[in-house]
Design brief:
- By secondary structure, the protein is an alpha/beta fold.
- It has one domain.
- The protein contains 7 helices and 12 strands.
């Protein structure tokens, strides 16, 4: 009888745990491309004096997730590769991809490079078996405006973008890839002014975004996240 009760209890516990977490969780950090300072330096408010603005902010967040995630959870770091190749070759004269690789090794994350919007969306929608591995955390670090993620900005074209994800294209993302009550946030500028609204309409979950610009200028500080500019606020 005692053996039967013990078996029943263990079966109930296993079923309950499965019901609470019926799928594996993936945490995704997306790092957009860096600008070329050879163009930006002539502007009143130049971008990206340091090549690692977005990389450093992403590294801090990856470190936090590394401490928080469970043993079965996957932490994925998606990086827009061409911008860091070009910046390293043309300006910094360093292999920036090798430096990015060192972050992958330190925090044991799954590094995924992408070169186009298509590759970016393909990984989100079907890069993992989405019927049993859902995205529980999705965060974007990079250039943006009120209507889109500028995955490339001022790197191939001065003050222009060659690769982006516009708010009118959010229907290309399958809403079912996200876990219920996923944490979704854009750390880029202005996305709370319009894109967050269309994100919720397309994905059926809110995305936290900024009203106003965000500040990456303190990027050499430890424990640092992008901050809101004066008068700004976060919104869904």
């Amino acid at each position: 009888m005692k053996i039967f009760l013990l078996f029943f209890f263990l079966s109930f516990l296993t079923t309950s745990l499965h019901a609470a977490h019926p799928f594996q969780r993936e945490y995704i950090i997306v790092t957009g491309g860096v600008a070329l300072i050879e163009w930006e330096k002539y502007k009143t408010l130049p971008h990206d004096h340091w090549w690692a603005n977005f990389v450093h902010a992403s590294r801090i967040r990856l470190s936090e997730l590394h401490q928080q995630a469970g043993p079965q959870d996957e932490i994925t770091w998606m990086v827009y590769r061409p911008a860091y190749q070009r910046r390293g070759q043309r300006q910094d004269k360093r292999d920036l991809l090798n430096l990015i690789k060192s972050v992958e090794e330190k925090y044991k994350v799954h590094l995924v490079y992408f070169d186009s919007q298509k590759e970016f969306l393909n990984y989100l929608n079907c890069g993992r078996p989405r019927d049993r591995e859902k995205i529980a955390d999705f965060e974007y670090f990079g250039h943006s405006n009120r209507a889109c993620f500028l995955l490339d900005y001022s790197n191939e074209i001065d003050t222009g973008s060659k690769v982006w994800l516009h708010e009118t294209e959010l229907t290309k993302i399958d809403p079912s890839i996200f876990a219920p009550h996923a944490f979704i946030k854009s750390w880029g500028c202005h996305t709370g002014e319009s894109m967050s609204k269309l994100w919720k309409k397309a994905i059926h979950q809110p995305m936290i975004g900024a009203i106003g610009p965000t500040n990456y200028s303190d990027s050499d500080a430890e424990g640092w996240h992008p901050t809101l500019s004066p008068g700004g606020r976060w919104t869904k």
